[in-house]
Amino acid sequence: MTPFGARVRQLRRQRGVTLRRMAEELSLSAAYLSALEHGRRGRPSPGLVHQICGYFGLIWDDAEALARLARLSHPRIVVDTAGLSPEKTELANLLAEHIRELPEATAIELAAVLKSSRDKLAK
Question: Is there a single domain that holds both residue 59 and residue 97?
Answer without folding.
Answer: no
